[in-house]
Amino acid sequence: MSLSSSYVIHAAAGIRTLQSWYNVSSGLWDSTGWWNGANILTVVADYTAIDPDFSVEAKKVLWNTYTQAQKTNVQYMKTIGPQGMIQSHTGSTIPTDYKDIAPTNFANFTNDYYDDEGWWALAWLKAYDLTNSTQYLETAMAIFEDMTLGWDNTTCGGIWWNKNQTSINAIENELFLSVAAQLANRAPNQQYYLGWALRVWSWFENTGMISLQYNINDGIDLSTCQTNQKAVWSYNQGVILGALVELNKAAPNQSYIDTAVKIANAAVTRLCDTHGVLHDQCEPECGADGSQFKGIFMRNLQVLQQVAPHPIFHQTIVKNADSIWSHDRGIDNKLGLIWSGPYDNKATASTQSSACDALIAAASLKRSTKQLAYGPHAVTPIARFTPIEIA
Asked: pLDDT per residue over 347-385, tens digit each?
């Protein structure tokens, strides 16, 4: 059995367990939150790239989530901690001072937070790539239009993190750039989306959020409009990689890839331990949000590896996939937060999907770009899923 085949089998087992959390009624995954759901949906679609036989099941999940998840109507708010850690709160986890807030309507996959919207736009773009359904593309386009309303013309530039305009961070602007660039490569009116992508990138690279060492800090200080020098989170190092790869497709410029390579190298150097395993500084308690971060980095590192192959990137993906499987796996192939192990028996749909991102990245290595675009694969067939009953 080839290494690629073994990683496909590991990813299959991880996805099977992940789907045990899927709630057909809500269209979301129990044990985790709203924006995590968009990332999990992306993981499900990405898995289809290495196992196209799963596409029928994946398409059912995509459509069910599309129809059901936007009916969500719950009390929901987000806060930002001292080091820029974004924390989502629903129901009983909402801070006491905000217990009376009205339920949030998630119609059309928009809400009060532009980072949430960016995650869902990317998920529906992934769904479009898999299905060629224009409904998913149009949804991503509509979300993007809502995000443009968050652009700040008076304070520091960029888009605000939230519609109350309390913070400007790296993540929502990276997502905005990624969505714009992807739409430039998929939607009509390419120049409109490309114009936005170029505008965001020009602003982003001049904020100081990319340090001299090419680590991306969490956000900007509204009093100086420069980097706030807060934490270097793995997902901030990851989203920008995929965004710059897409921007280079839309408007070829080697500097975009060169910058992405520098950011990826810097992230591996800073965030990986002596065994090459990735960590975030919130470990061992990252809450429902930080538990998603590392998978996002691995997903986007694999995207960069496809266009700018590098031995360090290959080794990082393989080492993390191996460590997850050997040291951070529990009963029923549940996968935890700390990829170096030991497994802490606290798996959620968030930790599971994040680890699956790494397994899928490893299974995708050495595949051509054409194959990764949901084409045929040449691995040994694996045990199939029991299909989820979706009416």
From this structure: 999 999 999 999 999 999 965 333 333 332 222 333 334
Provide DSSP, 250-276. HS--HHHHHHHHHHHHHHHHHHB-TTS
Residue 181 confidence class, pLDDT cut points 50, 70, 90: very high
Burial class from Cβ neighbours inside 10 Å (0-12, 13-18, 19+) for residue 352 reads buried
210: DSSP letter: B
Q: What gap in Å lies between CA 69 and CA 66, rounded to an integer?
A: 6
DSSP conformation class of 161: S
Q: Give the CA distances from residue 96 to residues 3, 77, 89, 156, 238, in Å, rounded to whole numbers and listed in that order.
A: 51, 12, 11, 32, 34
3-state secondary structure of 216: strand
Whole-number CA gyration radius for the chain = 19
What is the model's pTM?
0.93
Q: In the chain, helix, strand, coil percent, each to 5?
A: 55, 10, 35
Strand 73-74 versus strand 104-105 pairing type = antiparallel
| Cα 201 versus chain centre, distance | 19
